[in-house]
What we know:
This protein folds into three domains: 10-221, Glycerol-3-phosphate (1)-acyltransferase, CATH 3.40.1130.10; 228-308, no CATH class; 313-434, no CATH class. 57% of the residues lie in helices and 9% in strands. It contains 16 helices and eight strands. Strands 1, 2, 3, 4, 5, 6, 7 and 8 form an eight-stranded mixed beta sheet that branches. The mean pLDDT is 88.
Amino acid sequence: xxxxxxxxxxxxxxxxxxxxxxxxxxxxxxxxxxxxxxxxxxxxxxxxxxxxxxxxxxxxxxxxxxxxxxxxxxxxxxxxxxxxxxxxxxxxxxxxxxxxxxxxxxxxxxxxxxxxxxxxxxxxxxxxxxxxxxxxxxxxxxxxxxxxxxxxxxxxxxxxxxxxxxxxxxxxxxxxxxxxxxxxxxxxxxxxxxxxxxxxxxxxxxxxxxxxxxxxxxxxxxxxxxxxxxxxxxxxxxxxxxxxxxxxxxxxxxxxxxxxxxxxxxxxxxxxxxxxxxxxxxxxxxxxxxxxxxxxxxxxxxxxxxxxxxxxxxxxxxxxxxxxxxxxxxxxxxxxxxxxxxxxxxxxxxxxxxxxxxxxxxxxxxxxxxxxxxxxxxxxxxxxxxxxxxxxxxxxxxxxxxxxxxxxxxxxxxxxxxxxxxxxxxxxxxxxxxxxxxxxxxxxxxxx
Length: 448
């Protein structure tokens, strides 16, 4: 008989703390809002939006206390017993969908039974109600699995379990790149017992009402550009507006992630109304946005670099001098970490789904950094005169790696600023057209 999935595990606890350290290094900033909304003395189901595969789960584990059990789509378990056992060790239960085959749906009975056991032991269950991820900032239709589990648990306990559902919203400034920002917000808990009378009268209506309330609780916690046909245009326009609004300040820790998201939500609502009008003005802006994206890719520039037409030549020069002075620090951090840095990028090249890239790179890096550091420990202990010197050196390596990465980003950004100045001086036709598109778009957005 299998041990309850929510049970204590030394290996899982160690891995959780180790992964939390890497989460802090993987993201430039991490923001957690509303953690007090998660009850500590009763069972909880957390329902976040799903945009970035495994990273969504890691970002919940990062800040939620205790041993959260996740439910994930069954196809990731594959046919291998090793994979299934590994996922169970990570406290992940399979959730079967209709696309897995009608016959497979009966396997949900065992998973639901375990999920109820998690709740009855006053632990946290995390269900991603959209069912699958998508790299778009919008909330798709929610699946009823979370409602079935919730009512199953409460009905079994005469609606005295005290189960609450906490909606959650995840927001990433970038899905793939290391050094992005992430934020998770937890909404007000929804007590399942309040649907008791409706459930006893009509279970389907009760489940529909609960799912409606979960959706309503999630929407304020995320950006929801809810127009699939116009999504690319809306995202581009929203990003251009925010980039101009903060003039590059969004990369600084002083600008709160909550503030940026609030501004994006406000503009997003205006853009949705603008797109629905299907006016000639919107069609013109849509063409400009398409051309803007094409030119940005052609010039190999990031959106932040287009915030200004010109960057300080003195600032670029001083940055280069300082980078030259700090080059030994970069080398000290980069050389011993070159393989853990490079191999995750190499192994992830064949992945077609962009939302899997950050997850795969993160997992490979977590394993490789630990492996290489254990290997490094042997020569350090042999060649250094004192054992504590070896330990200090080993502890310093991940921090030097982080400094090397920041140096690399700084160098790349300085190079991009220098390129912008050069294209401006040379009156590069693509650059000039790119800025024309940006200015024309902003003239419209500022009037909304």
